[in-house]
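User: Predict structure, ligand copper (II) ion.
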Amino acid sequence: MLTRRTVITGALAASASFPSIAQAQNPPAGGQDGNALPRTILQLQRRNIGVNGKPASVYGIRQPDGTLGITTDVGKPFRVRVENGIDEPSLIHWHGLTPPWQQDGVPGISGPPIPPGGNADYDFPLRFGGTFWMHSHQGLQEQLLMAAPLIIRDQRDRPDQQEIVVMLADFSFTPPDQIFTELKKGGGIAQPAAQGGATPVSAKASTAGMAKGSMAGMAKASAAAKPDVNDVKYDAFLANDRTLADPEIIKVEPGERVLLRIINSSSMSAYHIELGAIEGELIAVDGFAVVPVKARNFPIAVAQRLDIRLVIPRMPASHPILAVLEGDRKQTGVILAAGNAPVARIPELAKMPSTALTLDLESRLRAVRPLIPRKADRVHTINLTGDMAKYIWSLNNVAWTPSVPPLPIANGERVELVMVNRTGMPHPMHLHGHEFQVVEIDGKRFSGAVRDTVLVPPGRRVVIAFDANNPPGTWAFHCHLLYHLNAGMFTTFRYV
Ligand SMILES: [Cu+2]
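Assistant: Predicted complex:
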């Protein structure tokens, strides 16, 4: 049976077998700096935050001046030095960007992790702008908030709007390796009844109860009838490191335009973004423009981003921007304070439990710049598989180890990935190094969003297309739920 230890040691063994990649990192300091932009230093650090009135030691990715992450401009090179200031190896993935494969930040795939006290340099062109993020791909560090915004401004960004980044995270006082051990033992998991082997659980059976459920109905519903989400019981949900007991309060001007850049950096948690009385305009997902969609709430799966334009009403008022955990009442958020209105305390529980995320919005999204229509040169079918009871997660029934052969792709091909979720849980699937387009949901073709992470709910079939335009190398493809990834729901593509 696959254990976390075998995955981790396997990854280390794999990185040890890639000595040539070490040379791709740490080029001579200043070797190519010349007159070009200076390198932005990003320090991997321990830092302390307060959660539920208690101190918490977490990680952070900060510039020497304290700035979390990076804000830069499209067209500039991404010239960064990562300095590892923590006491274990680490490596940072630039989620959604398209660097050369050795700079993609996946330990054992792109290169070795950076040892404590070491550093690595990155330098590649930024092909597009938008809302991205960075996070550790090493072990379970992401659960300890080793993540930060990565914002690339472009011509879409109007000078007359205030930009507000909202970074969502799930937090536990339990150490991440203990969370994983308990998941493997079945502790703390809402176990669906009678789910033995890798048997598909009917999506309709597991979500219909929630969709229809009143609170009373929910309370009576058996575990099997609840949506199979939220298998980790978190202590808190954070928006910009804070809970609603002490939320970030952001000054805005009545009548002003705001661009919300919402980043779901949670390890395991998806949300419904609730804008309250304000109607927002969704203009991009995962950094890529979509035909605008107006609504007061929007779903966001793990690792996804939403760019939402708002116009603040002219009356002085405070406007909570909330993220309600899917299938639950727990919520987090920030408060936009316009004018001199009092800021009301927002409870940490919503009045009603929310539903599990669906593909309703995904199926309505349309890319502003879709891929050029073209027949696929290569199609890979990837069944999302697993065993909830043993907490083994896999692709095509193979839990990843470094000896799993990569799936082939070739330069210049149009590749389609047919993802079929044969488990009872939703999986947000992420492809590294290539933006993709959602082109089919359950047999219906359409010109959907261009993005880097797409949710595949239980029982559903989602097809994505991408151009194999970032050779050579080996690229990760995985479920972005941290403990699913850690359990083996991961594979690679390799240019052949
Ligand atoms: Cu998953």
